[in-house]
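User: Quick sanity check before I run a bigger batch. Here is a single chain. Can you write out its predicted 3D structure?
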Amino acid sequence: MSRVSCLARSLLLLGSLALGWIDLSSAQAQPFQAGDLDGDGRLTVQDLNLLGAYLRGERELTDDQIRAANVDQDGRITEADWQVLQQRIQAATDAPTGQVQLDSAYSGQVVDRLTGQPLAGVEVAIPGAGISVRTDAQGRFRLPGPLPAEEILVARLENYLPYSQSTGNGQTGGDRPWQLQLERWDPNATLVLEANVIRLGDNQYSPKSAAAGQFLAPAQGVEMTRSFSLDRLPPRPPVLRLGSLIGLDTAAAYRAGQSRIPGANMSPMRVLLNGVEVEQIHLGGDDLRIPLPLEHLRLGLNTVTLRTGKTVIQPGRIAGGSRISIPLLGGSLDIFVPLGTDTIGQDGGAWVDYDDVQLANVTIEIPN
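Assistant: Done. Predicted structure follows.
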């Protein structure tokens, strides 16, 4: 009787151990889910934020997170992974209703400016943050929040003019959905010179520079030049339109709250038509319009150049380094730079510092 009881207890113990091993094995064999960076078994905005921070160089990932970050399973971690993850999260969020709900500043609708009809399939993106979505059948979209400030949002659809809007204009701070109105493109009335987000500058800027936190891609140079042809001279001056411009560190930009650098003294952005300066831009903004004087136009090929501003820094040599004096509120701000650092652009002890800016969507309206 005693031996039977002992045997029964032993079998019960072995059974419990076996069940425990089976449970443990089941947990360890849980299927891997690409995109689940935080390991909670779900695809959420938190995973999207982790991946975005990694792509911007703001944080490191563990080995398991790196494996999960390779969402498209191509062996690399790129913006394509971010976009695939964002689409999967959006699909899961919208599944119950089948459409996007316009309930926050992260959602919005794109319509035809003339008819007010919703536009489906529009790409709505914030390229500097790696965000890209498309509108549904009702022209609605939802962006992952929180949205980055001081960035450029763009909207693109075939046969429509490219649209852009800076996210630092108060939109991201409120609760109102985005309302984007796209204009139909008439090639005879509007010339598209640039439909992308372009960065100009020298890649040397202060963290307090306007929009500095969003300068992810390297600058393409200190100026951009685009050409266009005219087979006739228009009766009135054409209008150069800049969809969006951010990052200016001029004195006017500081006074307007666009730059956080006290004593900012970059020269304004210069606009040149066929090599002749026709305008200076002191403030950033959306839908900037600049008339192009008729006297500087010509039949055939013309060029428009946007040249970023600059300032000349005069260092004063002191033992062990250089002292840079920057005018500040009637006095000066002294910055010490150790000897031996790069002095790119130096000329006789001074060097030129170019303003790092971002702009999007450059077009020209030609009057009939």
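The chain has three domains: 34-93, 105-185, 186-368.

User: Great, the batch can go ahead then.
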